[in-house]
Amino acid sequence: MTRTMKQTAKLWMLAVILTLCGAITLQACANDDNHPSTEQPTVERISERGTLLVGTTGDYRPLSYRETDGNYWGFGIEVAGKIAERLGVSIEFVQTSWPTLTADVLAEPQTFDLAIGGITITDARKETMLMSDGYLCNGKTILCRADETDRFQSLADIDQSEVRVMVNPGGLNEKFANENLTHAQIIVHQKNEEIPSLVAEGNADVMITEITEAPWYVQNDPRLAAPLLNSPFTHGEIGVLMRKGQDDLLALVNSVIAQMKADGTLRQLHEKYGLVYGY
Length: 279
Hints:
alpha/beta; five-stranded mixed beta sheet; three-stranded parallel beta sheet; 19% strand; globular; disordered N terminus
């Protein structure tokens, strides 16, 4: 090979390397634009982006609900707004679901910064993810038809072969039903927000739900009742969920929750959505 040919080959290889480096750089930039990066502190990254990405199911009145026009409202949505306000950024909601919640939080590339809206703090979740301090007391209870409140006064009353119990898939409601109801007929319905109406219409007898969700439906549908609202089967708290490695964001979220408790904002939200204040 002549010297000229060798020089030409070297130049060609250099051009290929530069092209590849450029492509990698562009791809990295594209990833930064479309997905959260984990190469810098979370709060700094969110501040630079100017938007807090919040995962939420949008099917859980009155904590997180997505209207047909795409707008979200609810207790958890307002808490998310306070977090974005503290960060000094706008907010964007990203649709998730109960069956895919954990996978979505842990997804690569990362699709949102945190998840909110009816997410119960559990040891299982804390093993693989981060959970904030609680901002809302929670517990399992039921919805049934108003004219059948005397029929359902205990878990034993529900766990009968003739009782049809409806739950949404993939969440703790279905888990609770499967673990505690061995005789009742368990019906899994895909859309959580449709279950109360289905119970009211006679398509099921009982809905396993939470003390955070039941009051809203009782207040808005006279056909429904929550006879065990003041004696829930379980006791827990609802918090904000996020992936591990975001300790700076977790500290900020906990600070916001603490401030909301201290200045009365959290109590006001409880009153606004008709929920019992437990702090």
